[in-house]
Specification:
The chain is an alpha+beta fold. The chain has helices at about 5-30, 80, 130-135, 185-200, 235-240, 245-250, 255-260, 265, 315-320, 330-335, 365-375, 380-385, 415-425, 425-430, 445-460, 470-480, 525-535, 540-555, and strands at about 105-110, 145, 150-155, 155-160, 170-175, 215-220, 225-230, 275-280, 285-290, 300-305, 325-330, 340-355, 390-395, 435-440, 465-470, 485-495, 560-570, 575, 595.
Length: about 600
């Protein structure tokens, strides 16, 4: 970002500050500055890597916008019929601009858990809602998306069939797949993995997606048959969140005891392209190539995930050549674009940012209060000025046009209307002390956004404070039956399959198993989402999700904010590297076994 652009953004934030300062001071009884706090401890260096001596062709990016991709389970009048029903053994996503193959060897060190798509030191894949890009380096799944999120392809599943009523899903597994300890991967492992994901004791945020499973049969070691109680057009997408786990290693441990079991970070085993070597707390994880990987032994000598606690440190490490990949904020992307040694990759995030209300708090139970929040915030101005247009304002959890009702309230900023709603809700008598907005976004752009939001709310008579924490701390506050927050600012997956948003709104999806962290309970919303799963006709599904969006837009269990563009950067010394932004990162085939670093 140029000094002129940075000054313009700071001027925009300061402008709101000047206009709102007196109101905010009166409301808070103190400074109008945010109270955001972040850890300032930098990560220790990972193992030294050999310095590459030759440049090579750079990386690849998807050619189609991920946000505009139609889910394969909703792509035609028959949603399930549109999903891939078979997958050839050789099916692999072809990179859009495949670089020249590099020599085998080299170490690739990345900040794979930097940014909102990461989950630093979150090693249990069952409990994670992010960090998938890294976890998929040593664990595998039955199937994954292609790089453009336009279709699904087999991973450990060689092929599959779906019954006409979308209630029976039969998976045929690849032959000869081995766990990292040499044991064979079988259908018993599939059954075990899905049962763990389904268990309410496993603290799986996606657990409610598997509630309709009635039976999992394993007629032979390479066949798994999953039977549902009712049709589910979104079931293949739901399975993309299930990591395959070794029954022989974990089968005797109860799901509740797996949640924080040390196995996940001592000597875990998967079937992915790389296998565990070691973990140094707060510093890095080191992986080695899996010689028995079904696509072939990876070319890299080792793969390292380095942790960074201080915002901006990963970009500095990337510019110094200490790492070869990291997530970037929009500010950092502008800096990286000027570095001839780096390639910046970008795309729609498939994530909706939102303010979530804790509906157990009496102050937030009146819908007029929640609507006042929406009217007080100038989302379009924030997108235009702070995001420089690299985001889209959304009226509900969806940004796909086919699921968004045309008559949705845009909640254009109207401070007078916000004040009227608050007055009708008796806000002055019930507001109590300033409300804290909790977040795990600690980068400068997000700080500016929340500071501006704070100032805009103050103009309407709503006093808030800001607090930023790391991801584990955030999850500890919000992912429990007795949540420790009033409002939080976060991001939630919203594509490519619309049912992915169901875990945020279904009344059955409350913590600790589920992500309805505001404890929203609306029977009509439940009905709309469940119908969206069961209807296999695309037109009916679209109508179902439009109904769900209408309820969200009117009742505002969230204030939906925007869907942003996200960025990553990779060294030009890396070849055959595929990356696209996605919710929680990963969930697509990125050909990691072909990555190389030129020496």
């Amino acid at each position: 970002m140029s000094p002129e652009q940075l000054l313009s953004r700071r001027t925009f934030v300061a402008g709101f500050a000047a206009a709102a300062a007196s109101a905010l001071l009166a409301a808070c009884g103190g400074s109008s500055n945010p109270t955001a706090t972040t850890s300032a401890t930098g990560a220790a260096a990972a193992p030294t890597t050999a310095a590459p001596t030759t440049a090579a062709a750079a990386t690849t990016a998807p050619t189609k916008s991920a946000a505009s991709a139609v889910s394969p389970t909703t792509a035609s009048s028959s949603a399930v019929a549109a999903a891939p029903t078979t997958a050839a053994a050789s099916a692999q996503a072809a990179p859009t601009t495949q670089a020249a193959a590099g020599a085998a060897g080299g170490t690739l060190t990345g900040g794979f858990d930097v940014g909102p798509g990461g989950s630093p030191q979150g090693f249990n894949p069952v409990t994670q809602g992010a960090g998938f890009m890294w976890l998929e380096k040593y664990y595998s799944k039955l199937l994954v998306y292609d790089i453009n999120f336009t279709k699904m392809q087999g991973d450990l599943a060689e092929s599959w069939e779906i019954s006409p009523d979308a209630k029976t899903f039969t998976f045929h597994l690849r032959k000869g797949i081995l766990w990292h300890d040499g044991q064979p991967f079988t259908s018993d492992d599939v059954k075990f993995s899905i049962e763990v994901a389904k268990s309410p004791d496993s603290a799986n945020p996606y657990g409610p997606k598997y509630a309709d499973i009635q039976d999992i049969a394993t007629p032979d070691p390479l066949t798994c048959v999953i039977t549902l109680g009712k049709p589910n057009a979104a079931f293949l997408d739901a399975l993309i969140f299930v990591f395959m786990l070794p029954k022989h290693a974990l089968g005797t441990i109860a799901p509740k005891d797996l949640v924080k079991n040390p196995w996940w970070f001592t000597n875990p085993i998967g079937t992915g392209p790389f296998k565990w070597v070691k973990y140094v707390q707060d510093q890095y994880v080191q992986l080695a190539p899996n010689e028995n990987y079904w696509r072939g032994k990876p070319k890299l000598d080792q793969l390292i995930n380095r942790y960074f606690k201080e915002a901006g440190s990963s970009l500095i490490a990337l510019q110094k050549g200490e790492i070869q990949f990291t997530y970037l904020t929009s500010d950092e992307a502008e800096i990286a674009k000027k570095d001839a040694n780096l390639t910046v990759l970008s795309g729609p995030s498939q994530v909706v940012n939102y303010l979530c209300f804790n509906l157990k708090d009496p102050r937030l139970q009146d819908v007029r209060v929640r609507q006042a929040f929406a009217y007080a915030i100038d989302r379009k101005a924030i997108v235009d000025q702070l995001f420089k247009g690299s985001a889209v304002v959304v009226p509900a959890a969806f940004d796909q046009q086919q699921y968004t009702p045309k008559d949705a309230n845009p909640y254009k900023r109207d401070v007078n209307k916000a004040k009227q709603l608050l007055q009708a809700a008796n806000w002055d008598k019930i507001k109590g002390s300033p409300i804290e907005i909790l977040t795990y976004y600690a980068d400068q752009v997000s700080t500016d956004i929340l500071t501006t939001t704070q100032q805009q709310l103050a103009e309407a008579g709503i006093a808030v404070t800001l607090r930023a924490v790391d991801v584990p701390t955030f999850n500890g506050f919000v992912s429990k039956a007795d949540p420790q927050f009033t409002i939080y600012y976060a991001g939630g997956a919203n594509g490519p399959e619309p049912d992915v948003t169901s875990i945020y709104f279904l009344s059955t999806a409350v913590p600790p198993s589920g992500s309805n962290r505001g404890f929203w309970n609306n029977p009509d919303e439940d009905k709309a989402y469940l119908a969206g799963r069961s209807d296999i006709d695309q037109a009916k599904r679209a109508a179902d999700y439009q109904s769900a969006a209408s309820i969200q837009n009117d009742q505002l269990p969230w204030v939906p904010m925007w869907v942003t563009t996200r960025f990553g950067a990779v060294s030009k010394k890396v070849q055959n590297f595929l990356y696209t932004p996605s919710a929680g990162s990963g969930r697509y085939y990125d050909q990691a076994e072909l990555w190389t670093v030129s020496k």
